[in-house]
Write a structure and sequence with these properties.
Urease, subunit C, domain 1, TIM Barrel, 2 domains, five-stranded antiparallel β-sheet, globular
């Protein structure tokens, strides 16, 4: 019996809009897709006469956005009332630690599905997620992976280890990080909450459990209490337990000193800036301009506040100018942050670079933004900050699949998910109230 031949690859092109590859702006070009990959980027005139194509009607095409720090587990907290919180510790105790202790496996699944939808609606095709569901630890990362992959997203996952729920839960959290296995679309880091919730014995266990080439994903100096409760030696303590690895991702860094920022730069760690979350929690703000000047590789995320990366970039840009009282700063630093964030794709996936390039995974955002002034290599960041950041995303292509277009998601049953989230959130809030 002759073997059945494989079906021919599906080949189509995106046309009739400017393309920002991540490094340059192209006009009158086409993005040619073949199954899951970008087959080529060619002048529109070079397309074969019978080439199937999608007309983007003048809209700007950009690489799918990378979110360097997200919390999908926070999804069902929208609208949840909690006791008034006078400081950051109270925010944790009154809301987030009650939430993660009450989450079920089904809650985690719905939270991931809703977050995936939000990512697609905002053109994000990869997220680095920091998970906590102390009510249902075992297998939670696999649940996240299934949901993100089903939606078409790439993800980097971890479970945040903390001593706050007792030794048995700590051991289970460590095991969840160790036993979770990556797939071609899902990679991993080793998750830690924050050093002030981790004893030396736990950090020693973590150091022994984490492979030497695996990075950590840890909240770091988000609030001043993370500094004071580590006896004003936070970075030194992390270094003593081999947390400051080149592959590690430190999050926030709001209260790091100049010397500590230099230590982060020397260690080669990435530092995730989450400006919307920092302002929301009233913890202060990372000085992006200073961190950049000290050589820190700063990336950006949303910290569960939302999934709109252009919003995060614009907030960071405006915040930098506000902190320095100087309209000359922020532009170059946020552009460098964009490039560093997008580059995380190549760090975790062999077929992704965070850019639009031949042979790479077809992760593309079509912004509902038609440039109304000249668009060039030199001014693309200005167009994104001042124009596209205020626009919606028209379409998101994830791995070559048109996952979202004009308000319609093809990879998620949105009405069914919304109804399930509504019911699950009501039950979750009741459990949180005890």
């Amino acid at each position: 019996m002759n073997a059945m031949s494989a079906p021919p690859p599906v080949r189509r092109a995106l046309v009739n809009g400017p393309i920002f590859t991540g490094t340059q702006v192209l006009h009158d070009h086409a993005l040619v897709l073949e199954d899951t990959r970008i087959a080529d980027i060619v002048p529109r005139a070079a397309l074969p006469p019978k080439q199937a194509w999608l007309d983007v009607d003048g809209r700007l095409m950009v690489p799918g956005f990378v979110n360097a720090h997200h919390h999908a587990y926070s999804a069902l907290a929208t609208g949840c009332a909690c006791a008034p919180s006078a400081d950051f510790m109270a925010v944790l105790e009154n809301l987030w630690w009650k939430l993660d202790a009450a989450l079920t496996t089904d809650d985690t699944r719905l939270s991931a599905r809703w977050t995936a939808l939000q990512c697609l609606q905002h053109g994000a095709t990869m997220l680095v997620d920091h998970h906590a569901s102390y009510g249902a630890i075992r297998g939670s990362l696999q649940v996240l992976a299934e949901e993100f992959e089903c939606a078409g997203l790439s993800a980097v996952l971890c479970f945040e280890v903390s001593d706050r729920h007792g030794p048995a839960a700590t051991a289970s959290a460590i095991e969840e990080n160790v036993t979770f296995l990556p797939t071609p679309r899902t990679n991993k880091l080793f998750g830690l909450h924050a050093a002030f919730t981790l004893g030396d014995a736990t950090l020693a266990q973590v150091r022994a459990a984490a492979p030497p080439d695996e990075g950590f994903h840890i909240h770091c100096a988000e609030d001043a209490l993370d500094v004071t409760r580590n006896h004003n030696a936070l970075l030194a303590r992390l270094a003593a337990f081999d947390i400051l690895r080149p592959a590690s991702l430190l999050v926030h860094g709001v209260h790091l000193t100049d010397a500590e920022l230099q230590a982060v730069a020397q260690a080669g760690c990435a530092l995730a800036h989450c400006p919307d979350s920092n302002m929301h929690n009233g913890v202060g703000a990372l000085d992006l301009v200073k961190a950049h000047a000290l050589g820190v590789r700063v990336v950006t995320g949303t910290d569960g506040m939302h999934s709109n990366m252009l919003k995060s970039y614009k907030t960071a840009y405006q915040l930098a100018r506000h902190l320095h009282h100087d309209p000359r700063v922020g532009f170059a630093e946020t552009l460098a942050m964009y490039h560093a964030t997008q580059a995380l794709a190549a760090r975790f996936f062999a077929d992704s670079t965070g850019r639009l390039a031949q042979g790479m995974r077809a992760d593309i955002a079509v912004l509902d933004y038609r440039p109304h002034t000249p668009l060039t290599d030199d001014n693309i960041w200005g167009h994104l900050l001042y124009g596209a950041a205020e626009a919606a995303v028209h379409a998101t292509i994830a791995g070559g699949e048109l996952a979202y277009q004009a308000g319609v998601c093809t990879t998620i049953d949105v009405p069914a998910m919304t109804a399930a989230c509504h019911a699950a959130a009501a039950q979750l809030w009741q459990r949180m109230r005890g």
